[in-house]
């Protein structure tokens, strides 16, 4: 196995790619040689600004050739790289910048791109034990958690090495010839498949007005990442007003769980283009199932796929003993090592070289993984993890509310949606719109309840604890 330090495989691919197109943005096409030049210039500019091994670089970028070059350049100089989402609350932004990293936005990248080319070959400078990337969670727990991956971890990943590709990825990779990139290239999923596409000989296609199926047709795209909610919408649109999606060869479904019935419907309407997988920020991809597998076997259709050979799965009961059904633990060479500056949470999740997923699962006789539920009280909204507890605390602290309870339910637009139930304080009538704004300002938009329903009292289970399962039957639809 290669001992190259990330992102050396990408630097080499660009440096030797010549006139091959690697990034298209409207009428602009950037070749591998031109992208390599951009990466070298931006890396030189970052070094002049003080970036290097052990130095934090925060990237708040759109979807441009310069943005992609800046991400690769930040890794190339060996920095500790964080992607900054554009919709952060001021408190969350301050939290992510509290180590005083260099903040790079699109305007700054444009300046860095004018740096004189150093005239030397760019070699990855990351140190194996240094943190290479911090991927921040949504902050729905009150403060964002930063999943920290080392350069050794990123260098062990299979993405830029065809000889390491798991079978499902080897099946997927040739379909990424025109891979749509949108939202943020700093996204862990978007960047991972962008590098996979380039390694497979594909081109990154920028779209600044994302929306299915329009952007597929505009760009003759062959592949894209899609959330569960967007997939539901696309299937519905194709049933009512079909659009020619002849170029499409792969949709990579991410975020919320996808029910087998919905998955079967998507395959029926869109054809054999759905790749269904399961992963976490802490681990990267854990499993994947191909369209051919799902069409061939109902067992595969009801699963989230099989793991790569390098990924170990362990299912354990509440006492940590091996079990047929229980909490899933994962171990993979490319996993995160810790939560940044959070030793308590790190000790709870990163256990003896394993990552606790906090998801309940079982493996069938063919090696397919089936998800059964969650240990943690979490809701996945537009692929963002949203925790019920912090929302309940924000609502319960309001003087008009005596008690607050939050649950998640499937939603065709967002994948899952937050629903809140409140017991009003004596003499008060809660204002749902004001409370929704309060949650948004405190925890961010993904945490805002879709409905806030007043109830006289919360149902109680036999254990004497609030029965959230009973609450779900009270949700206004």
TrEMBL record:
Domain AMP-binding enzyme C-terminal intervals: 391-465
AMP-dependent synthetase/ligase domain location: 18-99, 123-340
InterPro entries assigned to the protein according to its UniProt record, in alphabetical order: AMP-bd_C, AMP-bd_C_sf, AMP-binding_CS, AMP-dep_synth/lig_dom, ANL_N_sf, ATP-dep_AMP-bd_enzyme
Coiled coil, from the record: none
Record CDD domains: AFD_class_I
Pfam families xref list: AMP-binding, AMP-binding_C
SUPFAM superfamilies, alphabetized: Acetyl-CoA synthetase-like
Name the record gives this protein: AMP-dependent synthetase
UniProt organism field: Micromonospora andamanensis
């Amino acid at each position: 196995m290669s001992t190259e330090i990330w992102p050396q495989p990408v630097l080499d691919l660009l440096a030797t790619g010549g006139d091959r197109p690697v990034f298209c943005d409207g009428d602009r096409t950037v070749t591998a040689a031109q992208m390599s030049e951009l990466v070298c210039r931006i890396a030189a500019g970052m070094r002049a600004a003080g970036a290097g091994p052990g130095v934090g670089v925060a990237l708040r970028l759109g979807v441009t050739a310069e943005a992609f070059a800046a991400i690769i350049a930040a890794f190339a100089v060996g920095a500790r790289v964080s992607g900054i989402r554009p919709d952060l609350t001021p408190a969350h932004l301050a939290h992510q910048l509290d180590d005083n990293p260099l903040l790079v936005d699109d305007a700054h990248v444009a300046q860095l791109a004018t740096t004189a080319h150093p005239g030397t070959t760019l070699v990855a400078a990351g140190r194996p034990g240094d943190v290479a990337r911090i991927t921040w969670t949504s902050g729905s727990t009150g403060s964002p958690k930063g999943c920290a991956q080392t350069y050794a971890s990123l260098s062990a990943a299979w993405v830029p090495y065809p000889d390491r590709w798991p079978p499902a990825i080897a099946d997927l990779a040739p379909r990424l010839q025109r891979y749509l990139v949108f939202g943020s290239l700093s996204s862990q999923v978007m960047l991972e498949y962008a590098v996979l596409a380039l390694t497979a000989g594909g081109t990154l296609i920028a779209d600044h007005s994302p929306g299915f199926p329009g952007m597929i047709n505009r760009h003759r795209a062959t592949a894209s990442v899609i959330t569960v909610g967007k997939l539901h919408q696309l299937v519905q649109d194709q049933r009512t007003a079909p659009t020619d999606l002849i170029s499409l060869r792969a949709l990579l479904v991410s975020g919320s769980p996808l029910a087998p019935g919905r998955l079967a419907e998507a395959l029926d309407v869109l054809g054999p283009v759905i790749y269904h997988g399961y992963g976490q920020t802490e681990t990267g991809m854990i499993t994947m199932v191909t369209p051919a597998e799902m069409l061939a076997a109902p067992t595969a259709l009801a699963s989230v796929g099989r793991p790569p050979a390098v990924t170990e799965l362990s299912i354990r009961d509440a006492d940590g003993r091996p079990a047929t059904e229980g909490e899933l633990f994962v171990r993979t060479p490319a996993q995160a090592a810790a939560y940044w500056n959070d030793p308590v949470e790190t000790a709870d999740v990163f256990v003896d070289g394993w990552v606790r997923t906090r998801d309940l699962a079982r493996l069938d006789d063919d090696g397919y993984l089936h998800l059964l539920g969650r240990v943690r009280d979490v809701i996945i909204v537009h692929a963002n993890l949203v925790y019920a507890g912090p929302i309940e605390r924000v609502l319960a602290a309001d003087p008009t509310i005596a008690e607050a309870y939050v649950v998640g339910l499937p939603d065709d637009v967002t994948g899952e949606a937050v629903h809140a139930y409140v017991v009003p304080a004596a003499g008060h009538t809660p204002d749902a719109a004001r409370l929704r704004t309060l949650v948004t300002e405190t925890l961010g938009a993904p945490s805002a309840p879709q409905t806030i329903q007043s109830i006289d009292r919360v149902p109680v289970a036999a254990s004497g604890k609030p029965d959230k399962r009973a609450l779900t039957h009270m949700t206004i639809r």
